[in-house]
């Protein structure tokens, strides 16, 4: 039995500016990496030098068979000081887009993938009233410059990430009795170094709570308008961190609440967009007292190895958002590439099963093209289809990359 994917199905890989470019010294993440006592285990440093090596990297991905590449703009490069736009950086991203076209790859541009310029904290970061407008201005300027070469765009990456983190924390059994958290000392120190209050220091990943939810959703709406005001006609959407939320015995009520707060309420906000980006890594199970321990083997990230989570989240996204779905991230962290291959094979089978049932799925994007900087966990997490020796920046293609690239070329799933 084989399955034939639709002809124009997008087969992609993804990266994010701060995780691969290197030297992103003007953003909030770099600051947090370098604040004493930080939870970041190491500095992003030169990352995998994608900033300089993008042309070879894109050629490599195209050679493997991929027809889409999702990457993000680094706002802090384009607007390093408030209102000061750096055309040479927009030119850099224009060259990246041109390289994609040269190699027959559709570029999907993410306007914000977790990292923000430090100056945004003066306005209260992702809890600040002015942030949607400032984000929209950045989108408008960039789209005007890049829109004619863009194939698809995401406003913000995982607008529910902070909600996901905070809900999971609340339901971890060890936190059952915990009081609401105060900002940790290192964050207070990071805020102080920018001369802002700890309340103003609200980086995207950590900005949880009703105010941040409102600001981030507004920023998405304003971003869509701003991006669409530029040249080109391409789909614009938002991506969500959609873990498959399951109920163990007696956990139905909690699971339904978590599923609504973390997944469904955000999917409702994506109604009316051109697509919704589904990003799934695993599942979480809930019992009557909170989160249940994993049943299966866990990955480097501590997630259960459960590729079928993707099928549930695609179906949920299509049902609740009612718009086409693009899997904009799916992947596994581990040193054993044979396990990665199995993960991918089972995940794409899930995608095929959704398509067979008539669910409108337009693409599958593996996270990540390269082993890269996994935020707080640094370089130890190996998500890549392509390994990188960070001493020499040499790339090495893993067998899983060849398998997925071949599927991308043929569209036939054995
Ligand atoms: C993020 C990526 C991250 C990946 C793996 C997603 O939440 O968009 O930046 O590297 O998950 O943890």
Termini separation (Å)? Answer: 7 Å
CATH architecture: Alpha-Beta Barrel
In DSSP terms, counting alpha (H) and pi (I) runs of 4 or more, how many helices?
A: 13
What's the number of domains? 1
**Shape type:** globular
Might you state the CATH topology name? TIM Barrel
Strand order across the largest sheet:
2-3-4-5-6-8-11-12
**Largest pleated sheet:** 8 strands, parallel, barrel
Helix content: 25-40%
CATH superfamily: Glycosidases
**How many extended strands?**
15
Order of helices and strands: EEHHHEHHEHEHHHEEHEEEHEHEEEHE
Estimated radius of gyration: 20 Å
List low-pLDDT spans: none
CATH level 1 name: Alpha Beta
Averaged pLDDT: 97
Walk me through this protein's architecture.
The structure is a single chain. With 414 residues, the protein is of the alpha/beta class. The protein has one domain (3-413): Alpha-Beta Barrel (TIM Barrel). The protein contains 13 helices and 15 strands. It has helices at 17-20, 28-33, 50-64, 75-78, 87-102, 131-146, 161-171, 185-193, 210-228, 252-269, 309-321, 337-356, 399-410, and strands at 3-4, 10-14, 68-72, 106-112, 152-156, 236-241, 244-247, 275-280, 283-287, 290-291, 325-330, 361-367, 386-389, 394-397, 412-413. The strands form 4 sheets. Strands 2-3-4-5-6-8-11-12 form an 8-stranded parallel β-barrel, surrounded by 6 helices. Strands 7-9-10 form a 3-stranded mixed sheet. Helix 10 (252-269) crosses helix 11 and helix 11 packs parallel to helix 12 (337-356). The termini are close together. The mean pLDDT is 97. Beta-D-glucopyranose binds next to loops.
């Amino acid at each position: 039995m084989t399955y034939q994917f639709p002809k124009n199905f997008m087969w992609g890989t993804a990266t994010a500016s701060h995780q691969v470019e290197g030297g992103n010294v003007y953003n909030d993440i770099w600051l947090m990496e370098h604040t004493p006592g930080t939870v970041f285990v190491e500095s992003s440093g030169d990352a995998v030098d994608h900033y300089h090596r993008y042309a070879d990297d894109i050629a490599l991905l195209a050679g493997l068979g991929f027809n889409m590449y999702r990457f993000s703009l680094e706002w802090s490069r384009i607007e390093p000081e408030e209102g000061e736009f750096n055309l040479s950086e927009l030119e850099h991203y224009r060259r990246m887009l041109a390289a994609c076209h040269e190699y027959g790859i559709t570029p999907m541009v993410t306007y914000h993938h977790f990292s923000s310029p430090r100056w945004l904290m003066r306005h209260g970061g992702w809890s600040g009233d002015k942030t949607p407008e400032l984000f929209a201005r950045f989108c408008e300027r960039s789209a005007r410059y890049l829109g004619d070469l863009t194939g698809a765009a995401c406003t913000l990456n995982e607008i529910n990430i902070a909600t996901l983190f905070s809900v999971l924390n609340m339901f971890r059994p060890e936190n059952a009795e915990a009081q609401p958290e105060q900002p940790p000392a290192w964050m207070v120190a990071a805020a102080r170094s920018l001369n802002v209050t700890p309340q103003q220091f609200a980086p995207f990943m950590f900005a949880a709570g009703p105010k941040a939810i409102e600001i981030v959703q507004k920023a998405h709406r304003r971003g869509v308008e701003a991006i669409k005001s530029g040249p080109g006609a391409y789909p614009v959407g938002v991506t969500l961190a959609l873990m498959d939320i399951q109920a163990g015995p007696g956990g139905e009520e909690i699971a339904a609440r978590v599923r609504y707060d973390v997944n469904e309420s955000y999917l409702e906000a994506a109604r009316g967009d051109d697509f919704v980006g589904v990003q799934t890594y695993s599942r979480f199970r809930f019992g009557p007292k909170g989160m249940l321990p994993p049943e299966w083997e866990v990955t480097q990230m501590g997630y259960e190895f459960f590729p079928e989570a993707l099928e549930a989240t695609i179906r949920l996204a299509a049902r609740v958002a009612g718009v086409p779905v693009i899997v904009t991230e799916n992947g596994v962290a581990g040193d054993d590439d044979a396990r990665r291959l199995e993960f991918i094979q089972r995940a794409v089978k899930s995608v095929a099963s959704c398509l067979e049932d008539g669910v409108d799925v337009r693409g599958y994007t593996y996270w990540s093209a390269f082993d890269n900087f996994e935020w707080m966990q640094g370089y130890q997490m190996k998500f890549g289809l392509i390994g990188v020796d960070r001493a020499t920046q040499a790339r090495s293609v893993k067998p899983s990359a060849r398998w997925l690239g071949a599927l991308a070329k043929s569209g036939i799933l054995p």
